[in-house]
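REQUEST FORM: STRUCTURE PREDICTION
Request ID: SP-0412
Submitted by: Lab K.M.
Chain count: 1
Length (residues): 300
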Amino acid sequence: MARNLGYVCVVTQTVSGSYIARIRAALPSLHPSERRLADTILSFPGEIASYSATELAQLANVSNATVTRFVRRLGYENFDHARQAARATQQAGAAVFRVSASDQGPEAALMAQISQGRQNVENSFTAIALAEIDDLADAILRANRVWIVGFRTAQAFAVYLGAQIGQIAPNVTLLPQAGQTLGESLASLGPTDVVIVFALRRIIRPFPALCRDLGASPAKIALITDVLSEQGTEAPAFELALSPTWRMRVQTAAPGPLFNHAAVLTLCHILATRTLERSGIAGRKRLLAIEALHDSLDEL
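STATUS: Completed
RESULT:
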């Protein structure tokens, strides 16, 4: 449906695509004032998630009517619907949606990052018990093979954790493996295996399907995640499909555009440390054997 509002025909039918994709698609046909509004939003796309229509209009130096026409042109019924779409993308983890205009100096910004990292660690470990970490550490030591799954940012933590516990557990495999499909690896999962899954924002599209198949496997699953459901009460759908034996939720809040992963790294460190400490004599013998090979090969 379209309504003639003077100099422009405003389209109100449903438009597909993400919030940013809709803006980009509309750019060539925008009136100058709408284009100014679009440029303002694209500079700080997350601002619309917290601003009112009036505040956004003032920021872009346009009228409230321009904001109304603009969001309808994008296919949203009203400004609140557009703001909800922006919030959903912001919460999903898009860095560009987390950039905001700020007059905060670099020193204050640094202290805010440090403070938030400390708070993330403290808040995370009020909900993660040492007994749960130790239980997972014991399962790692008993496992025939330990699989560690991580995509995008989470892959860095998967590599780190794999390198640390790989000093004690002899069979550690990181997924995805270069040159292989996931199916080729998952077919090898056994009942004595442990799979550690990192689910850190932003989640890739195939992830729910992967969790469904991991949940149906005979292996025991550990989940490390910072993802909450939209309602904040029930677990996300992928978590329900995964049905993990161990569930460790970390906080990654940050005052800037990038998530603060201090709590994730701390959890990896503690899990690896407890695995080593609980490995006893067998673990120490393996570490001694590794050191002997370092000396023999003159590696370090």
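NOTES: The chain has a mean pLDDT of 84.
Reviewed by: T.R.
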